[in-house]
Known about the structure:
Distance between the termini: 43 Å
Structural class: mainly alpha
Membrane topology: Multi-pass membrane protein
Protein name: Transport permease protein
InterPro entries: ABC-2_transporter, ABC2_TM, ABC2_TM_bact-type, ABC_2_transport
Oligomer: single chain
Helix content: over 70%
Number of strands: 0
Order of helices and strands: HHHHHHHHHH
Number of helices: 10
Pfam family, one: ABC2_membrane
Keywords: Antibiotic resistance, Cell membrane, Membrane, Transmembrane, Transmembrane helix, Transport
Shape: globular
Amino acid sequence: MTSTTGPAVTRPARRRTSAPLRLTVAEARLYLREPAVLFFTIILPLGLALVLGNFLPGMREPDPLMNGQRAVDTQLPVMMITLAAMTSAFTIVPGVLALYRERGVLRRMSVTPVPPALVLAVQLLLNVTISLLATLLMIAAVVLAFDSRPPAAPLWFAVSFLAGVVALFAIGLLLAAVVPGSRAAGGAGSVVMFPLLFLAGMWIPREHMPDGLRVASDISPGGAFGQALRDAWAGAAPQPLHLAVLLGWTLVAGLLAARLFRWE
């Protein structure tokens, strides 16, 4: 009796154990088959950093308002890192999850041993990995192309990056929860992303913003994320306000996403 029941118990256990890995591999293959995804999250930010850093006047000149730093030292690469992370969080994740909901993928998975929540986890894992890769490539690019130095406080930089991407992807999951369909996901993501990029300092560096706009930047996820990265890159600890803002956005958006998310 032991010999007949033993394999029947262990085989499903092995299947359950390998299911997350199989799903991750399958989703990664689908992810890599979309050249637009890698273009907008890695190639475009890198290309913009190199083009703007080489050809935009003043980018390689010390700025007194930035404590004598050049824009290519922290401002430019951090904005491109923010762009890559927001693109993944606000357009790719909501679009994929909305499409899966429309096609009934999440509903069908609810009757299989693989829980549909695993799809969310895998999508987040893939997109955070791509954001991390884009960040590492950006650091290498500005060091090699502009003779900038890498982040002077790497541990604080890692903490800031983690806090920022968690906040951004929590907002992305909230978008995925409320958008009516995959066609609306891209538009909704852009509506959220571009104002947050502006507040982060994409077009006007925070040092050049009027006081009221800088306050709005401080309490926005984009502004808090970007400034925390810049502080750590320059060798200082991020301001507690910015870390608290990122934590607050994570909690609020994450709780709302969990409450509002629809599987079908």
